[in-house]
Write a structure and sequence with these properties.
single chain, six-stranded mixed sheet, three-stranded antiparallel sheet, 9 helices, 11 strands
């Protein structure tokens, strides 16, 4: 490749590089929903575009590959197949938050080795942050307030009560990673949407809805039952993405038993008898079975909102909040 050395080209090239970098960071911030949040009265954090903001950008742009053994109980024998997951630190944090969620205090999904690997790579990343500061990273997944379904991890120490804490928060869509808990938001079981007649959403394609419909629109059409059915389907489809789960069960020798254990854990958390699970290798049937029961459990959460539409506006099954807090030691 021949480089042009005429006077002015290097300056133009430098300006172009700076602009490209700035545009890239703007696009990243827009994609992940980077926020400098103003806390309510009484919060221990104040909005400040300092190290906290820089750290969120680092988490959103730093690519990492982790290796882990997908054993639901954290224990694996020597013959277990190692797996890799690759993404930004923010994506990996969002993935493992959903992959290690709970329902009313009971484990809904379990991927402890994945979580441990993500914690380690996050610690290594925040240790490299410049400045004499302490850093804590927190994640939060709440598909619907009051539902009892939640996930969250904390990496790093907690600030002292008298610390001057700065904070920045980003919204990270789940569905951008490559292995454990991620699934695109359109992957949810049709069985969980009994009200769908094709009028407000695309026609089903291969047993799936072809595009994402807003949960507020779902609630407007189907009320609380329609909302919780769609919400449950999206939650289960995120924890057990149909395509990837089916491929893993077919192609990895030790995957089938691990996946069945994860399904049993989810079923047990929502009151199902694990022995009743249709463990026949049909992932969509399994997802629909879990989603139908979970939908019933989620309906109580509608009572905490004025209307089903208000609940639909607040529902966020496909978003994880990643917050960074910094303070001087």
């Amino acid at each position: 490749m021949t480089r042009n050395t005429e006077r002015g080209d290097d300056g133009d090239r430098a300006i172009s590089t700076v602009l490209d970098a700035a545009i890239f960071l703007l696009l990243v911030s827009a994609a992940i929903g980077l926020l400098y949040t103003v806390p309510q009265s009484g919060d221990d954090a104040t909005a400040d575009p300092d190290v906290a903001a820089e750290t969120t950008t680092t988490l959103a742009t730093s690519i990492a590959t982790i290796d882990y053994v997908p054993a639901p109980d954290g224990e694996a024998d020597a013959s277990a197949t190692n797996r890799s997951d690759r993404g930004t630190i923010a994506e990996l944090l969002a993935e493992t938050t959903v992959a290690n969620a709970e329902f009313r205090g009971a484990a809904f999904t379990r991927a402890p080795n994945h979580e441990a690997a993500v914690r380690n790579v996050t610690r290594r990343t925040i240790r490299q942050i410049d400045g004499d500061v302490e850093v804590q990273v927190r994640t939060r997944w709440r598909p619907l307030d009051g539902s009892g379904l939640r996930g969250g991890i904390v990496v790093g120490p907690s600030p002292p009560a008298d610390a001057d804490v700065h904070a920045a928060t980003m919204r990270v869509p789940v569905g951008t990673g490559t292995s454990v808990g991620a699934a695109r938001s359109e992957w949810f079981a049709l069985e969980a949407l009994p009200w769908v007649d094709g009028g407000d959403v695309d026609q089903p394609i291969d047993g799936q809805i072809g595009r994402r419909t807003s949960l507020e629109a779902v609630a407007t059409r189907g009320g609380c039952e329609g909302l919780t059915g769609a919400l449950a389907g999206r939650v289960v489809g995120t924890a057990f993405p149909p395509e990837r789960t089916a491929i893993a069960m077919r192609t990895e020798s030790d995957a089938a038993s691990n996946i069945e254990t994860r399904y049993a854990t989810a079923g047990r958390a929502i009151g199902q008898d694990p022995s009743s699970l249709p463990l026949n290798g049909d992932v969509r049937e399994l997802n629909g079975y879990l989603a139908s029961t979970l939908a019933e459990k989620l309906r109580v959460a509608c009572g905490g909102f004025d209307t089903p539409e208000a609940a639909g506006r607040r529902a966020a099954p496909d978003t994880v909040l990643v917050s960074v807090r910094t303070w001087s030691p």
